[in-house]
């Protein structure tokens, strides 16, 4: 029996996904992206209504990882990408908008399993290319994506209040 399971979310999971998303963003980026903007960013990005609308959107898939007790420990947010950024090739392209594993569950293969599920899901929907945006100053994430087969193809800004961060655009052919 695996120590975790992965399933696709429905709108009934909106509250769980909203609190998981806010918790893992804060855990990962709270130390470098402080208040007062942090609370504003969380409210804009992870209110239950915003998350419910995203889950219901055409072309969106949210995958939730739960441990054996049913606790939410990781998630991925995928969507079809009609206008990917320059440098990203492919005819039918999907974006990984968010990808987070709880700190207590990292280093046990959860991220790799979740990413493989993203690959399968995108391929089943006819995708030939996946892309994502990641902070250049998050080497743990950039290294993980490289190990999963992504490579840097460009860069893009990340807006956090008045601050403009420098992100990599990474892509992987499926
Ligand atoms: C980046 C991230 C998604 C990786 O997830 P993860 O679950 O830790 O990834 P994995 O466990 O699959 O792989 C990580 C490491 O654990 C190792 N590992 C995999 N399975 C393992 C197992 N069963 N036992 C021990 N180690 C294992 C992998 O080999 C890898 O090691 P390496 O870094 O030395 O190559 C995770 O660190 C994360 O969510 N970080 C914070 C959020 C974040 O930055 N998200 C990206 C935003 S753009």
List the helices and strands and how they pair.
Blueprint: E1 4-8, H1 14-29, H2 37-46, H3 48-56, E2 60-67, E3 72-80, E4 93-101, H4 110-124, E5 129-135, H5 139-147, E6 151-160, E7 163-173
Parallel strand pairs: 4-5
Antiparallel strand pairs: 1-2, 2-3, 3-4, 5-7, 6-7
Helix pairs in contact: 1-2, 1-3
The chain binds coenzyme A.
Q: Could you name the key traits of this structure?
A:
single chain, alpha+beta, Aminopeptidase, 7-stranded mixed sheet
Provide an overview of this structure.
This protein is α+β, with helices and mostly antiparallel strands and 174 residues long. It has a single domain (4-173), classed as Gcn5-related N-acetyltransferase (GNAT) (Aminopeptidase), CATH 3.40.630.30. The chain has five helices and seven strands; from the N terminus they run βαααβββαβαββ. It has helices at 14-29, 37-46, 48-56, 110-124, 139-147; strands at residues 4-8, 60-67, 72-80, 93-101, 129-135, 151-160, 163-173. The chain has a seven-stranded mixed β-sheet with strand order 1-2-3-4-5-7-6, sandwiched between helices. A hairpin with a 4-residue loop joins strand 2 (60-67) and strand 3 (72-80). Helix 1 packs antiparallel against helix 2 and helix 1 crosses helix 3 (48-56). The longest helix is centred in the N-terminal third of the chain and has 16 residues, at 14-29. The two termini are 29 Å apart. The mean pLDDT is 96.
């Amino acid at each position: 029996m695996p120590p975790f399971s992965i399933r696709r979310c429905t709108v009934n999971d909106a509250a769980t996904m909203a609190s998981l998303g806010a918790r893992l963003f804060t855990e990962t980026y709270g130390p470098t992206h402080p208040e007062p903007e942090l609370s504003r960013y969380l409210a804009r990005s992870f209110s239950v209504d915003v998350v419910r609308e995203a889950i219901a959107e055409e072309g969106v898939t949210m995958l939730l990882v739960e441990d054996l007790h049913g606790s939410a420990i990781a998630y991925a947010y995928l969507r079809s990408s009609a206008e990917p950024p320059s440098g990203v090739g492919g005819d039918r392209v999907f974006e990984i908008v968010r990808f987070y594993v709880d700190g207590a569950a990292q280093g046990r293969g959860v991220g790799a399993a979740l990413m493989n599920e993203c690959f399968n899901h995108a391929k089943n929907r006819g995708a030939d290319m996946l892309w994502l945006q990641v902070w250049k100053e998050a080497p743990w994430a950039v290294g993980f994506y490289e190990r999963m087969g992504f490579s840097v193809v460009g860069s893009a800004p990340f807006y956090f209040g008045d601050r403009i961060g420098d992100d990599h655009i990474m892509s992987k052919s499926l």
